[in-house]
Write a structure and sequence with these properties.
By secondary structure, the chain is α/β, with parallel strands linked by helices. The protein has a domain of about 250 residues: Glycosidases (TIM Barrel), CATH 3.20.20.80. It is built from 13 helices and eleven strands. An eight-stranded parallel beta barrel has the order 1-2-3-4-7-8-10-11, surrounded by five helices. A two-stranded antiparallel sheet has the order 5-6. Strand 9, helix 11 and strand 10 form a beta-alpha-beta unit. The radius of gyration is 20 Å and the shape is globular. The two termini are about 20 Å apart. The N terminus is likely disordered. Bound molecules: ligand G3I.
Length: about 375
């Protein structure tokens, strides 16, 4: 459904705007009252990746999350490297704190992630056989999904399984899971998560599908093939997470991305935008110009998706330029700090936030 149709459809039901909003989030305060973001009424829930340590000791950071987000996801904490420092230990400190924060503030928390090639503790390299890999993966998913059963409604079960340059013969990225189990690690993970929590939304999450490049076309095709294969065999799966780490200096392949979303929707799958930000290392030095280009890029990306299907949620990978993963990989040659996120380092909303609000807020 197109965004306009969604909104017009709701209004067309004969409801005044404030009632429409109430109907989206029951119990929301009357128009004109003050509300935290979790109580705000939005057409598409907005959220951000959060670092729990900053939430605990940085007042402005916590305030920004409360002000803007209805949903959170741990930037870390549920990754193997955080949860499983040793083979026998599960350390739930970070996600326990984040879910307590979310629940105390009426927010939803997404789970990220169960099967990924990255952020793996060294001991997992010793997983030597297919049987051992299956045992470890199943035990991990049962323990982690089980702990948050009924509390984390949506999980990135599979993260970045498609190779960076997939070919028909070799569509999958190397990981301990792919090496030991082949492609069946995907099915195994999804079936295990579904068995533990039948109500949870099972998501396959990936990136680099939005540009008009051979790489993105190949990734789209490989991902769609994977989804079709899973659907054909009735493997439980509910949504595709389009990460949206957008390269600010590259145009969005609006048609290619829309066709991709159409194909996903035709398989009866939802789409989510899970990790939006704009990588700005190759954009002009001028702050104003950079922010405008980042906003326009995000607008093209969101338009291409929303013109076809309303995403179930839009999340950015962080909330403020003060704390972002981007300089880990994409520092600027001129030494200026990156500006990939909706709020600047002083928590002031940028043009990117305006774009996000256009897509997520119900118009007055
Ligand atoms: O926790 C330690 C800290 O104790 C230490 O002082 C510090 C020194 O560098 O490192 C800290 O850990 C880092 C952690 O981020 C928290 O900042 C790790 O070294 C670093 O590897 C880790 O990077 C994260 C990366 O995933 C790997 O897990 C990034 O924050 C996070 O943004 C990034 O997120 C990924 C998504 O999961 C998947 N999609 C792409 C996205 C961006 O790369």
């Amino acid at each position: 459904m197109r965004r306009r149709e969604f909104v017009v459809g709701a209004l067309g039901a004969g409801l005044a705007a404030s009632n429409v909003l109430d109907s989206i989030i029951p119990g929301a305060p009357a128009a004109g009252g003050t509300a935290s973001a979790s109580q705000l009424r939005t057409a598409i829930p907005f959220g951000a990746a959060v670092r729990v340590d900053y939430l605990a000791d940085q007042f402005d950071y916590k305030t920004a999350i409360l002000e803007h987000c209805q949903m959170v996801v741990g930037e870390g904490g549920l990754k193997w490297i955080d949860l499983r420092p040793t083979r026998d230990d599960f350390v739930f400190d970070q996600p326990d704190r984040l879910i307590a924060f979310a629940e105390a503030n009426g927010m939803k928390m997404r789970g990220h992630t169960l099967a990924w090639y990255g952020a793996m503790p060294d001991w997992t390299q010793q997983i030597a056989s297919e049987a051992e890999a299956e045992g470890e993966l199943v035990r991990h998913i049962e323990m982690v999904v089980g702990r948050y059963k009924g509390r984390i409604p949506s999980w990135d079960v599979i993260n970045e399984a498609i190779a960076d340059h997939p070919t028909p013969d070799s569509p999958y990225r190397e990981s301990i899971w792919q090496q030991r189990l082949g492609k069946r690690f995907v099915e195994l993970s999804l079936r295990t998560a579904a068995a533990v929590d039948p109500d949870v939304q099972l998501v396959i999450n990936d990136y680099a599908i939005e540009n008009p490049t051979g790489q993105c076309r190949a990734k789209r095709e490989a991902l769609l093939n994977m989804l079709r294969d899973l659907k054909d065999r009735d493997v439980p799966l509910h949504a595709v997470g389009i990460q949206g780490h957008l390269l600010g200096d590259q145009e969005i392949d609006k048609d290619g991305l829309s066709r991709f979303v159409e194909a996903v929707a035709a398989m009866d799958l939802e789409v989510l935008v899970t990790e939006l930000d704009v990588i700005d290392n190759k954009l002009p030095a001028s702050t104003y110009d950079r922010d405008q280009i980042a906003a326009a890029t995000a607008n093209d990306f969101l338009r291409a998706i929303c013109d076809v299907k309303r995403p179930g949620a839009i999340l950015t990978w962080g909330i403020t330029d003060r704390y972002t993963w981007v300089p880990m990989w994409f520092t600027r040659d001129d030494g200026k700090p990156n500006r990939p996120l909706p709020l600047d380092v002083n928590y002031r909303p940028k043009a990117l936030m305006q774009v996000i609000e256009e897509y997520t807020r119900v118009p007055a």
